[in-house]
Amino acid sequence: MFLTRPFAALAILxxxxxxxxxxxxxxxxxxxxxxxxxxxxxxxxGAVLNxxxxxxxxxxxxxVGEALSIPPNxxxxxxxxxxxxxxxxxxxxxxxxxxxxxxxxSVAISIPRETLSGAKNARVTLEAGFTTVRNVGAxxxxxxxxxxxxxxxxxxxxxIVASGPALGITGGHCDDTLHAPQYHWExxxxxxxxxxxxxxxxxxxxxxxxxxxxxxxxxVLSFRDDPQASQYTLEEMKAIVGEAHRLGRKVAAHxxxxxxxxxxxxxxxxxxxxxxxxxxxxxxxxxxxxxxxxPTLYLADWIIVNAEAIKLPKPLLEKAKVxxxxxxxxxxRAFDAGVQVAFGTxxxxxxxxxxAREFAVYVKLGMTxxxxxxxxxxxxxxxxxxxDRIGSIEPGKFADLIAVQGDPxxxxxxxxxxxxxxxxxxxxxx
Length: 430
Ligand SMILES: [Zn+2]
Prior knowledge:
By secondary structure, the protein is of the alpha/beta class. Helix content is 32%, strand content 19%. It contains eleven helices and 15 strands. The chain has helices at 6-13, 111-127, 142-151, 194-206, 234-246, 258-267, 280-289, 298-306, 314-336, 357-364, 369-384, and strands spanning 32-41, 48-50, 53-57, 60-65, 75-86, 88-93, 130-135, 159-162, 211-215, 250-255, 271-274, 292-294, 401-404, 420-423, 426-429. A hairpin with a 2-residue loop joins strand 14 (420-423) and strand 15. Helix 2 crosses helix 3 (142-151) and helix 10 (357-364) crosses helix 11 (369-384). It is globular, with a radius of gyration of 21 Å. The two termini are 33 Å apart. Zinc ion is lined by residues 92, 94, 136-137, 346.
């Protein structure tokens, strides 16, 4: 269903150095790395280990504990005074997009240029402590190419669960409505009607999608659509979900308006992205169906302050000013009601690498710091279907680890200042 890692091992065997920074001088297969620190946060329980040792071998965690003996031939990394956590997971990014390209400037950007932006943004995101992202929407399969290049060790970046083009209705949020009719332009994810959406699901999977992204309602940063209006019908979404699940892919639904949220949940999607106008019935449905909510809240703070600097078109800014305050009120009610939440940012709408600013918003809306950290670790790993390989520091999982200087349970903004990053046993930030 998801990514495999045959290439990393080949790269290591061939002595190829991958990563933003040189990896270990001697990272031969079988070599043991012992990581020592002052503390380690168990993100499931909130318990803190003191003077922990993590043993890493072949990119995976072999053992973790307070008084582990270190094999004599191990390479020791001593993170004195720091606290270790599992690598963070962002369930809603667009690595190949940038904030300055939200309006007409986007039409002048080629797919190769977007892909290269994605390579830079992937590195920045990894260095910020996000060792896995779910990328939900990109042009020209640039996200699939980026994922494969990272897996091959060609460029540094997080693990990517990628969607390829997002599915949407003609003229909807996931269609490009910038062009006049004589250009006959439509985005590659556009599909209307049951046979067409079934074909589109099969097509994006054919070209490498790990997950299916759909637009269930209008959006904020798009022209001539209403965030509160639903777009796909219940029947179309049922066809998409049926086909995706049959082929082993989950479905992420962009949805702001209350009706679209409910239709998408009834259709069986795995996550609601944004959820700005979620109401009591929507909250009840999400809980009944065990559907994840992926709120993307910090972006509002950044975009309203920086609208002029990025030349955000006025109609889009006007929509943002209406939707944003409503979203915070409604999402807080969903948090209070105990909806399952996975961390997401929509990074691209604001600069990549600032993803961790989302944590403080969750805490402001009532989560404890531990609950906020869980959204980006255990919860997000479950949403991605990767609960057996990421999301906690446990034997058998990828050695995806980060370290911070202070106590993130006391001040969650410590996660905005990640000091050290390891992904699959290789250090990308020292
Ligand atoms: Zn998005």
